[in-house]
Every structure is written in structure tokens, then in C-alpha cells.
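Structure first, sequence second, as always.
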């Protein structure tokens, strides 16, 4: 059976040491036996042999034609067990390909090429993602019997050996969903409160997406603000994997209470979902409070500001949000990408058009993640903070225009989007009432709320 060289083991042959290994642990010195002990041991051994012989004669007497035959195991029982399949799990390293992983496990280039070609109609194995774990099962001969790769949070790729090659299929994970009550109090920021409650940072991101239309989670939180949430948790083989939907949530911010209940409904032949106040008003507004989730304001909207590069006084029609290079930038509203590229002193810039005559501009980016003509949703990641163009440090210059005139992003007031359609309001209010009761009495949580 082939030996798999562990990753990282050097391809160097080290000859065995001659003589005793000086690094091996030394056996403690034996005690000297006292004189005369061999005779006593020999006598005792002889007595034991006589007793055993007597016992055999008493309990197993010889009879006619009977002989004592020592018991011997059958030839089959002495045969070593045949080796079974071997399962190997590998975490994909940055820049590593599946061909490299399979090659390290002993597959030839021809075998790997055949596997990739046969699986490609279902999934392109060249698109594996680093950090994920690929699971492989090999026969004792070294033949690949199966391969398991997680495509995303909801499905995985299963490749199995068949008589004619390999068969591939995408399979859904069999998650167990449990509704769970979570609550917390803000000390410094939302992430700290969520982590202090034993939860993952992903829950804080979900809360920011729901309440970000009303709360600036960087500059608008206060010590003592609080939240409570009814959220679905997804488990696989009894282990937590990820969060599902937030079913209902409440947030107390600076003395005001904001409620949110999730509701799925049909409109225009398609299934939609959203978060609504108990009276059916949507939590979504025309624009998010901020295009970043973490920042520091370094320059505000002003009609006269000393330009940091040109050293002249001129109007600054936006807000500068300082943040590290690579910080995600989010579209603040649904819209269409009108421009995405280099724009002189603005550096890498994105300009979006929105309904009701609005436009938003995102300047000095390091990376652009959208293209001209593309439709985007509010809260969608469109770029990354940088320092391109006329800039003295990494930041985002964010601007809003309506019908050609600039607005102050920090003081502009925006309207909510359309409320829940009236025909769905009775069903929603019943569901919202039940969720609010459960949220207020978490010990009653049982079963599913779907």
C-alpha cells in the first residue's frame, strides 16, 4: 500500500543512525538479581509444570484412540485483513488547484484530466475556492472512488466512480433548522455585543442590513442600546453551520424602539420577502444611512473647504469617510450603474442613478466590482475603499445629487419604500403578532415558524 507523504515533508532521504540512537529515551538500569535466586526460580517453575501436567491428566484423561493435539488457529484466521478504502481530507490552500491535490495523492495527469472533463458539465473543478475542504476516498489500489466538495452554503458536489468513469451531481445539505432567541446590550459597538452573547459576527451583519435604513451603526449607536432577535440557525450533523433568516427583531436606539418582522409574499408572479413594521410599513428607505459599515468622518459637506491636494478653497459637495484600503463599499439604494472607471481627480469612481431623480457617487476607490449598465440593489457591495486620484489617504468621498443638485448625505431625509401590498396585510399582521409574542417570551420557542 502506498504511503502518502504528509504535506510539508521534505523530499530528503535521511539514512538510519548506526548504533544506539543518542536521542532515544534511555531504559532505566536493571537491578542486580541476588545470589541464589536462579535456583529458587527454577524450582518454582518445575513445580508449576508438574501441577499443570497433573491437572491435564485429571480433567482430560486419555482414552482409546484419543490424543492431545495442541489447538492451532485456522489458516484463514492467520491471514491479515485486506486493507479497505482510505479517506483523505485536504484544506485547499490559496492558489492551489485540484490537479495539484490529486497529483499529491498519486493520480496521474491522464486520470486527473479524465475526471475534470467528465465532471465539467455539472461543475468546473477549476473554480475551487481556497479555505474549503475537499474530501476524497481512495481504493487500496490508489483509484479515486469518490470526491466531495462544498460548492456553497446550501449544496455540495459529489463525484463517484462508476464502471464507465465518474458521475457527478450537486446535492443539497440536509440542514436541521432551529429558531433561537438572541439578545444583547451595546457597550461600544454591535459586533462586540453579538460576540459577547456567544454568537458569530454574521448575525451582526444581518442586523445591520435590516436596521441600517434607520440606524447608522458606526456613528449612531449609544451605550445601553439593546436588541433582541428570533433567528434561525442551521445545523448539520448536530453542529452549527450558519444563520438562516431573522424572523423578527427589535432594536432600541437612542430612546426609540424599532421593530422588524420578516414576511414572504407573492407579487407579480414572483416570491418576494422583506422586513416590515407591525403596521405593514417597510423598514427600507430610499437610501441607506451610510455606504460603509465602519468608518471615521474626516470631512463634511461644505460650500467652502481647503482642498487637501490643491491647497485652494472650494466647495466640497460630499462626505469623506476614512477607512482602510479594501473596506467594502455598498450601494446606498437600488439603481443602475451609469459610470464605473477612472474619472480624473476622483480616481476610480462609480456613479449610480436611482428613481425620483437621485444619483449617488463613490470616489477614490481601489477596486470597482460593477460595470456600466448593471443593475444593483441597495446594500450590494460595489467597490472597495482606496486612495486613487487626488487623495492624501485611503477614504471614500460619497455624494448624493437630486435633479442635478447636491444634497448633504448626513442631513438628507429619505422616504420609505412602498409598504406591504394591502391584500397581504391581514396575513402579515397575524404572523407579526405571533412572532412578537414569542420574541417577548423566548421560553415558548418550539418547532418551526414557517
Amino acid at each position: 500500500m502506498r504511503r502518502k507523504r504528509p504535506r510539508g515533508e521534505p523530499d530528503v532521504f535521511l539514512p538510519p543512525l548506526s548504533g544506539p540512537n543518542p536521542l532515544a529515551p534511555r531504559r532505566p538500569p536493571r537491578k542486580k538479581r541476588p545470589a541464589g535466586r536462579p535456583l529458587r526460580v527454577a524450582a518454582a517453575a518445575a513445580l508449576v509444570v508438574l501441577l499443570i501436567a497433573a491437572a491435564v491428566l485429571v480433567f482430560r484423561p486419555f482414552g482409546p484412540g484419543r490424543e492431545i493435539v495442541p489447538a492451532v488457529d485456522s489458516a484463514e484466521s492467520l491471514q491479515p485483513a485486506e486493507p479497505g478504502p482510505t479517506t483523505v481530507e485536504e484544506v485547499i490552500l490559496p492558489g492551489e488547484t485540484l490537479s495539484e491535490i490529486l497529483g499529491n495523492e498519486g493520480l496521474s495527469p491522464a486520470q486527473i484530466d479524465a475526471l475534470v472533463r467528465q465532471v465539467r458539465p455539472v461543475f468546473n473543478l477549476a473554480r475551487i475556492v481556497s479555505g474549503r475542504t475537499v474530501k476524497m476516498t481512495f481504493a487500496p489500489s490508489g483509484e479515486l472512488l469518490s470526491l466531495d466538495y462544498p460548492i456553497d452554503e446550501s449544496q455540495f458536489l459529489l463525484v463517484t466512480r462508476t464502471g464507465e468513469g465518474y458521475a457527478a451531481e450537486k446535492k443539497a445539505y440536509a440542514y436541521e433548522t432551529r429558531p433561537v432567541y438572541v439578545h444583547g446590550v451595546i457597550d461600544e459597538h454591535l459586533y462586540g455585543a453579538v460576540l459577547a452573547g456567544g454568537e458569530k459576527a454574521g448575525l451582526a451583519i444581518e442586523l445591520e442590513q435590516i436596521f441600517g435604513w434607520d440606524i447608522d451603526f458606526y456613528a449612531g449607536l449609544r451605550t445601553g442600546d439593546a436588541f433582541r432577535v428570533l433567528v434561525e440557525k442551521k445545523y448539520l450533523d448536530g453542529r452549527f453551520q450558519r444563520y438562516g433568516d431573522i424572523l423578527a427583531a427589535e432594536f432600541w436606539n437612542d430612546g426609540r424602539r424599532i421593530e422588524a418582522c420578516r414576511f414572504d409574499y407573492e407579487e407579480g408572479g414572483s416570491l418576494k420577502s422583506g422586513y416590515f413594521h407591525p403596521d405593514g410599513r417597510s423598514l427600507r428607505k430610499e437610501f441607506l444611512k451610510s455606504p460603509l459599515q465602519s468608518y471615521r468622518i474626516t470631512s463634511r459637506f461644505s460650500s467652502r473647504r481647503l482642498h487637501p491636494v490643491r491647497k485652494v478653497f472650494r466647495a466640497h459637495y460630499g462626505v469623506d469617510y476614512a477607512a482602510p484600503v479594501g473596506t467594502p463599499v455598498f450601494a446606498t439604494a437600488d439603481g443602475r450603474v451609469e459610470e464605473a472607471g477612472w474619472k480624473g481627480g476622483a480616481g476610480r469612481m462609480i456613479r449610480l442613478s436611482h428613481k425620483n431623480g437621485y444619483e449617488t457617487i463613490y470616489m477614490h476607490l481601489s477596486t470597482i466590482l460593477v460595470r456600466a449598465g448593471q443593475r444593483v440593489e441597495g446594500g450590494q457591495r460595489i467597490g472597495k475603499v482606496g486612495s486613487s486620484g487626488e487623495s492624501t489617504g485611503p477614504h471614500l468621498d460619497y455624494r448624493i445629487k437630486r435633479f442635478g443638485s447636491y444634497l448633504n448625505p448626513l442631513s438628507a431625509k429619505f422616504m420609505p419604500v412602498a409598504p406591504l401590498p394591502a391584500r397581504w396585510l391581514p396575513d402579515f399582521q397575524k404572523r407579526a403578532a405571533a412572532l412578537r409574542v414569542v420574541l417577548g417570551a423566548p421560553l415558548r420557542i418550539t418547532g418551526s415558524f414557517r
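Margin note: The radius of gyration is 35 Å.
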